[in-house]
Amino acid sequence: MSDRSADIVEAAYVCFTRHGARRTTMSDIAGQAGVSRPALYQYFRSKEDVFRALVERLLADALAASEAAADAGTAPEEKLAGILLAKLELVMRIWRDSPAHAAELLGVETRLAPEALGRYDEAMLALLTRTVQEAYPGADARDAAEMLFAFTRGLEAGVAAPDALPDRLRRGVAIFTAGFTIYPNEPKDQP
User: Fold this and answer.
1) Which helix (H) or strand (E) holds 124?
2) pTM for the whole thing?
3) Per-residue pLDDT at 164 exceeds 80
4) 32 occurs within a structural domain
């Protein structure tokens, strides 16, 4: 992405969080970015294209933060919490920046960028699986990763007090990881 495209995407974030996805116009984005509307169309064909680029950038940033947490020299429980906190932080940021439009923005994200979300989800599950596998060899790593991911999504869905979510996530991860040693992976019956 060029510097100008990145500036436009950043301006779009301001517009989407201020006005919501439906009410934001290409004129709004152009004005916020300091470019003419015709110049904006040289970079993006539509508001939906700008929104998809924004989602791609936000997800890439969140994934990079998750990868950094996975590579940190901390205890396994802290690594898992850090990986998931990066995901949770993205949703919390949208809720903080746009309490009036967050639900709409997160819904539009799902509708307009399903491929990007699918790639992000798979990358996160792979990262969680690898981290669980390395730290808890007896656990069913993929199953554990899916449960941790689903738990985090559940927290995101009930955003009433965003500031309480990180502590709730850490407590949940502690409960899950305690279970990895109590309930080790049992061999599955072969058909």
Assistant:
1) helix 114-135
2) 0.89
3) yes
4) no
